[in-house]
Amino acid sequence: FDVPASGQLRHLGSSPREFYISGNLVIDGTANDEIDLKIVVFNSSTSTFTDSKIQRRVINNLVGGRDVAYFSLADNIVLNMNDYVKLQVANVLATGDVTAEVDSFIAVSKR
């Protein structure tokens, strides 16, 4: 793997092809907004993106001004040479910014 651009993990080899992606993310935003977090796979042979998995959460209205949503990711993906995987997040109900908190992570391992 390498990182051709910020937030992308590109598969450089031909084997293995099947991977398991997992992660835990805490996303900070505006209370009660709905946000989608999705795993996106880029297929280099067709130059197309495919949404692998989408999760929707409501940002919790927590005491103390720390309004966050919790995501736990797990999915199986197939990556051929030069394909890459990335995460995308979208605020579904509003235009406010969202930010992944420190110590949020994803991991990709062979399946």
How would you describe this structure to a colleague?
The protein has no helices and 8 strands. By secondary structure, it is an all-beta fold. Strands 1-6-3-4 form a 4-stranded antiparallel β-sheet, with no helix packed on it. Strands 2, 5, 7 and 8 form a 4-stranded antiparallel β-sheet that branches. Strand 3 and strand 4 form a beta hairpin. It is elongated, with a radius of gyration of 15 Å.
Helix content: under 10%
**Rg value:** 15 Å
- Structural class based on helices, strands and sheet pairing: mainly beta
Order of the strands making up the biggest sheet: 1-6-3-4
- If helices are DSSP runs of H or I spanning 4 or more residues, what is the number of helices? 0
Largest sheet: 4 strands, antiparallel
Characteristic key phrases:
mainly beta; four-stranded antiparallel sheet; 111 residues; elongated
Outline of the structure:
The protein is mainly beta. The protein is 0% helix and 56% strand. A 4-stranded antiparallel sheet has the order 1-6-3-4, with no helix packed on it. Strands 2, 5, 7 and 8 form a 4-stranded antiparallel sheet that branches.
